[in-house]
Write a structure and sequence with these properties.
Layout: E1 6-9, H1 18-21, E2 30-31, E3 34-35, H2 36-46, E4 51-56, H3 60-67, E5 70-71, E6 74-80, H4 86-95, E7 101-106, E8 109-111, H5 115-124, E9 129-139, E10 144-148, E11 151-156, E12 161-174, H6 188-196, E13 202-206, E14 211-213, H7 217-231
Parallel strand pairs: 1-4, 1-7, 4-6, 9-13
Antiparallel strand pairs: 2-3, 5-6, 7-12, 8-14, 9-12, 10-11
Helix pairs in contact: 4-6
Length: 232
C-alpha cells in the first residue's frame, strides 16, 4: 500500500488554554516535558508515515526551531500562513505541496487510529473524502455526524448528546476536492464537509480508539496522564 504524506494543522492559538500554555501555539503545549506535536510525530512513525506537511501560522518560528526539517525519521515541510486562513484555507495551501492524496489531521487532537485502514476504506468505498469517526457518550463539546451505512448524510451542530458519532479530525482525501473552493480563507468543516455532503462521496469509518482534544484545560491535564501510560 502506497505511503502518503500527512498534513498537520498546527496554526492554532490555544485561546482556551492560555492559563496553562501562556503564549505558545496550541500544538506546542507541553505534556510531560514534550510538546503535544512530539506525540503526533511518534504516532506518525508508528503508522509508517515518512513525510509531514506542517500547516503553521501563529508563532510558526517556535515550531520550526523545535522540529526542524526532520523529526523522529519524519521529513517535515512547512506550509506557512502569513494571516489566518481558516482550516480550509490552511489545508488547501498545504495541498500545494502534495502530489495528489494525503492524510489530514489536527495538531491539537490525538486519535489513535490505523491510518492505512482509513486509506483502504477510502479506496474500497470510492470516497471523495474519508473521515475517521469516533463514537462517544454524554458529550456537548462536539457536533455529531449522521451516517447511513458508511455514507455521511449530515453534520449536526453541537448540543448535549447521550451517544453519537463525532468527526475525529482525521481525513484521507485528494487535493482536487479543494479546487472547487475559490476563496483563500474558509472553513473546511463548513465550506467543504457540510456544503458537499449531499453531492459528493463523503464517507466515514468508525474507529472506537483512544481520542483526546487538548482544547480545554481539563483534557490537557488528562492527556498528561494518558500519554505517560501510552508513551512512557
Amino acid at each position: 500500500m502506497k505511503n502518503y504524506p500527512a498534513i498537520i494543522l498546527a496554526g492554532g492559538f490555544g485561546t482556551r488554554l492560555k492559563s496553562v500554555i501562556n503564549d505558545l501555539p496550541k500544538p506546542m503545549a507541553m505534556l510531560n516535558s514534550k510538546p503535544f506535536l512530539h506525540y503526533v510525530f511518534l504516532y506518525l512513525t508508528r503508522q509508517g508515515i515518512s513525510q509531514a506537511i506542517l500547516s503553521v501560522g501563529y508563532k510558526a518560528s517556535i515550531i520550526e526551531a523545535y522540529f526542524g526539517d526532520k523529526y523522529l525519521d519524519v521529513e517535515i515541510i512547512y506550509s506557512k500562513e502569513e494571516e489566518p486562513l481558516g482550516t480550509g484555507g490552511g489545508i488547501k495551501r498545504a495541498f500545494q505541496l502534495v502530489d495528489e492524496l494525503a492524510y489530514v489531521m489536527n495538531g491539537d487532537t490525538f486519535f489513535d487510529i490505523e491510518l492505512k485502514a482509513l486509506q483502504q476504506f477510502h479506496s474500497v468505498t470510492n470516497s471523495d473524502i474519508s473521515l475517521a469517526l469516533k463514537p462517544m457518550r454524554n458529550f456537548d463539546r462536539y457536533g455529531t455526524v449522521q451516517v447511513q451505512s458508511e455514507r455521511i448524510t449530515k453534520f449536526e451542530e453541537k448540543k448535549p448528546v447521550e451517544e453519537g458519532l463525532i468527526n475525529g479530525g482525521v481525513y484521507f482525501m485528494h487535493k482536487e476536492m479543494l479546487d472547487k473552493i475559490g476563496e483563500e480563507k474558509f472553513s473546511f468543516e463548513k465550506e467543504v464537509l457540510e456544503k458537499f455532503v449531499g453531492e459528493n462521496h463523503i464517507n466515514g469509518k468508525i474507529f472506537d480508539n483512544y481520542f483526546i482534544d487538548i482544547g480545554i484545560p481539563e483534557d490537557y491535564a488528562k492527556a498528561q496522564l494518558d500519554f505517560k501510560k501510552m508513551f512512557g
